[in-house]
Amino acid sequence: MKDAFFLASRYISFHRGKTATLVLGLMLALVLPFGFRVMSARFQRELIARADSIPWVVGERGSSLELVLSGLYFEPTDASRLSMADVGLAKPTTKGVVVPIHCEYQAAGAPVVGTTLGYFEQLRLRLVEGRMMGRVGDAVLGANVARRLGLGAGDQLLTDSTNRVNLAGAYPLKLRITGVFAATGTPDDDAVFVDIKTSWIIAGIGHGHEAVDPDDPNQTLSANSENIVASAAVTPYTEITDENVGAIHFHGPAEERPVSVILVWPRDRRDEDLMQGEFIDFNQRLLLTSSHDAVNGLIDNVVKLQLLLDAASIFLLVVSGLYLSLVMSLTYQLRAAERRTLHCLGCARGTILQMHFAEVVIVSGIALVGAGGVLGLLWALGWSVPRTWLI
Amino acid sequence: MVGSQGVSEAANERTVATEVRERESFIELRSLRFAYDASRSSSRATTDVHADRGFHFACERLSIRRGETVAIVGPSGGGKTTLLSLIAGLLSPMSGEIRIGGERLDKLDDAGRRAFRIRQVGFIFQDFQLLDYLNVRENLSLPFRIHPAQRWSADAATEVQQVARRLGIEPFLDRRIQRLSQGERQRVAIGRALVTRPSLILGDEPTGNLDVATRDQVLELLFEQASQLVATLLIVTHDRELLDRFDRVVDIREFSTGLGLDSTEEHEGARR
Fold first, then answer.
1. What is the mean pLDDT of residues A223-244?
2. Is residue A218 packed enough to be buried (19+ CB in 10 Å), middle (13-18) or exposed (0-12)?
3. Which is more confidently placed, A96 or A161?
4. Phi, psi angle pair for A257, to nearest 5°
5. For residue B130, how many C-alpha atoms fall within 13 Å in the half-sphere facing its CB?
6. Which CATH architecture has domain B7-23+66-90+119-256?
7. Chain A contact for B121, CB < 8 A?
8. What does the DSSP 8-state code read for residue A212?
């Protein structure tokens, strides 16, 4: 058998291009189903872990999954449906922590998450560089954003422009980066965190500008004893500095300021039960959703998809097996002259079959080892199914 | 069969062989009958052109002495390859005797004939039949890797080296077959046939694909090596120019008619 393997290895080595194609085909047939399983298992673990870290989400009635995803993964949502008044309504329902999230804008492709200190405390986000935000206009970067953009404490980051054709709309705001969070392997790594007031400033709800002279017709559109409507000649600040921070102000009542979702951490199980009861009673507009329930619903769908993929994978493996058989059979036919020569030299048919068997074993072995390597790499790299594939 | 004797002992062997040759019949064919039957597995293993057209072969008697060089001639499709295949044990006769070196080949089963082949026979083909995925050294060592009776060992490796040296292909040992000239390839094929020190060398038009100069070189080498091994040399050839070099010429036409009673056309030709 040793000599059969020697000859088989020489044959395979000589036809390395064809062998590589065959091995690659087999590897793909093995890696696709098992790779998806590995990535999907990790995806499920990540979903559950994230749901564990943010157990309850409050939003406007509608799809609980969308609500949870916007709360847990900072999916951009229309923030006009909830307001700080709703935060005020949610707070008395629990003895735990209630945190508003405002997430409508992006900076360099990363979501700008406006929130309060409670969020960082609940998720135990740790700074690896710099300090937390000290005033409006400050930002702390998630680990991936900092690495991707090559930014750190002391640098600046401009928010993405959302309304280039609307001169009266919100202008990009230059954020001052005060720190970088340690990597957590969660969506927090891919976010830019700001104080919720900063987020409202980006939205144009709060702003700062030079003093307006009510008597200057170039600077005012209208003026009365209560209100002055400034013209476009009065440009808002696009960067908040220690000098102009005092001029930053908000218009309208505080409880009307928008919120995307409200995150809730009840103090204990009893508090959780009471909170659910409270929500059933008091408000028909707000929806309290358990992250676990929403995520489990999603995982059920993933499992169904997995079953479908498993069936497809079995089909793929059978087809690959048939193709391999066909290739081996054609190779066997093409090598009739070689077999005749070996027979003339005294080689038994059994030995020739051993050679062919050894070739199949080597090709399959390389494909198996290769597939195992790729799967191991997938596992080691911690890749999971991209969320956008499944949601 | 691999021994440690070197080329230096060849002269003594030659002297002994010359004496033995005079009196010993190495190959004996008697009342041999053969017809192709597609259902027989042994027939399927040959490259013979008759395998699918009801060819009949008969030979009442043919004797070849040890160390004799014999050319087998005859028209295409006359049965030359069939005769070689019967002597090599690739085909099994319907009746009659094939005795080689005292061993009854016709009595052996397939495994026995294979063992006989790997032990006693060196085969050289017209189109070399070298394995392109092996280099020269690996092609030479092939007989040691395909049969349990011939194990690959240090002795075998030495024999390969020595054969390569004798045939002048030592510098190419690690070269791919595709990078060799036709003449070099046939030298490798001869080396593969000689490496187990066979007592019988069979060649199916081994110089058929070579130009005249290379043909003469290769044939000279083949005679020389066969002589050193005291091996009987049976060569199928169409080339009439070569016949004088053989001890004897056998015309196949006498066999394939089915009337070949002691009917070999013999020429006593001086080798070289």
1. 68
2. exposed
3. A96
4. -65, 140
5. 30
6. 3-Layer(aba) Sandwich (3.40)
7. yes
8. P
In total, chain B counts a number of residues equal to 272
Is B49 an 8 Å CB contact of chain A? Answer: no
The domain spans of chain A are 2-47+297-390, 62-283
Per-residue pLDDT tens digits for A314-333? 888 888 888 888 888 888 88
B contact test, residue of A13, A14, A341 with most B CBs within 10 A: A341
Burial class (CB within 10 angstroms; exposed 0-12, middle 13-18, buried 19+) of B181: exposed
Q: Is the dihedral of CA A221, A222, A225, A228 positive or negative?
A: negative
List the beta strands (DSSP E) in chain B: 25-35, 56-65, 69-73, 95-100, 103-104, 121-125, 200-204, 232-236, 248-251
Q: Return d(Cα A307, Cα A302) in angstroms, integer.
A: 9
How would DSSP label each residue in A118-169? HHHHHTT--EEEE----STTEEEE-HHHHHHHT--TT-EEEPPPS-TT-TTS
Count the Cβ atoms, other than its own, within 10 Å of residue A370. 17
Bridge partners, B242 (sequence order): none
In sequence order, the β-bridge partners of residue A112 are A105, A192
Cα–Cα–Cα angle for B171, B163, B237, nearest 5°? Answer: 105
Give per-residue pLDDT as tens, A52-63. 999 999 988 877
